[in-house]
Amino acid sequence: MPNLLLLALLATFPALSTDMYLPAIPTLQVIWNITLPQANLSLVVFFIAFSGCLLIHGPLSDRFGRRPVLIWGIVLFIIGCGLCAIANSITMLILARIVQAAGAAAASALSLALSKDLYEGLVRQKILAYIGVILALCPMLAPSLGGLMLKVASWRWIFACQAVLACAALYGAVKLKEPLSEFTSGGLLAMAGRYVKVFRNVHFLILAFAFSLMTLPHFAFIGGSPDIYITGFGVSEQAFGYYFGINALGIMLGSLVCSRLSQVFSPMRLLIFSLFGLLAGGLFMIQFGGMTPLSVAIPMFCITFSTGFSRPISNNMVLEQVDSDVGAASSILTFEIFFIGAGGMEIIALDWPSKSFVLGILALIGSAIPLISIACIRKSIK
């Protein structure tokens, strides 16, 4: 399996685990007689467990190699999918999602670490952009596929389908040649010490946190979109997939445009452009969002386009700040992205008068703080 395809498959695990499942949330509310915040716990807990496990898999891969940790993680993900498929209560589903998240964390963290291992400089930035294009196809297709499956089969088949798709990534991981030739040494204390070393890198920490905030409106939309479109506007599960796909298309186009423009303009100029695009989308959402499905979809398209446009540049810029302990650094970056994302999903699940207004506020936060951070340390960024 080509390395690019394997990296793209690994990067899709978080989206695969959530977006295909979104149309089933209103169904589970009815079947198990639970509230939206209770149902959303299966999303929030997934991302919290996912984020915590990221901090384990990264140093483990530095110590024992990318390949064995990756294979173990994918197998664990497949087991978690099976447990989700047989869940008979929200409590059991949440516990199964923790297992699924532990496996998905290995795939997601190592997709970023492998991009650092296998590629360099502008080539890596271009590869990350291509992965962003492929990655966006997952949230474009997954909700529609999930909605279609709900029409012809039980929601349980959604998780069975995830397990089948994970088997393709498992095949690629088995065939992967170990990219590391030098490994870290020591036990748990030594691995923890790797994080201490990374935490001393101030520029890495500032950029990783600031750029992670850019994902706030994106993850909040994932958590709140079923309530906004299906419950609020009364659209069908299948139509919800189309509206959700518009925003996923924004991520894909953003990554694609970034891959083209990166050959002409400097990364910093492109990143600042994307941050102002995110700011504009947030202002548009605050002013006009919530009136109709399109009044939400259009500003969210602007927000997700800007997110997709910025992700290859911002991830590459953060990785450029570290020269060693790449697994640990990749885990910290991915941890922050998804931990902050989990917070956004829980915020949007609260009983707000207008969830679209909240999305706009989160977009303003996700653009303003990175812009301020860049202005403060721009001269010393690698």
TrEMBL record:
Keywords: Cell membrane, Membrane, Transmembrane, Transmembrane helix. SUPFAM superfamilies: MFS general substrate transporter. The chain crosses the membrane at residues 41-57, 69-88, 94-115, 127-149, 155-174, 201-220, 240-258, 270-288, 294-314, 326-350, 356-377. GO terms for cellular component: plasma membrane. It is found in: Cell membrane. It is a multi-pass membrane protein. One of its GO terms (molecular function) is transmembrane transporter activity. The keyword S-adenosyl-L-methionine does not apply. InterPro entries: MFS, MFS_dom, MFS_Efflux_Transporters, MFS_trans_sf. Residues 3-378 form the Major facilitator superfamily (MFS) profile domain. The keyword Metal-binding does not apply. Signal peptide: none annotated. This is Drug resistance transporter, Bcr/CflA subfamily. It comes from Pseudodesulfovibrio piezophilus (strain DSM 21447 / JCM 15486 / C1TLV30).
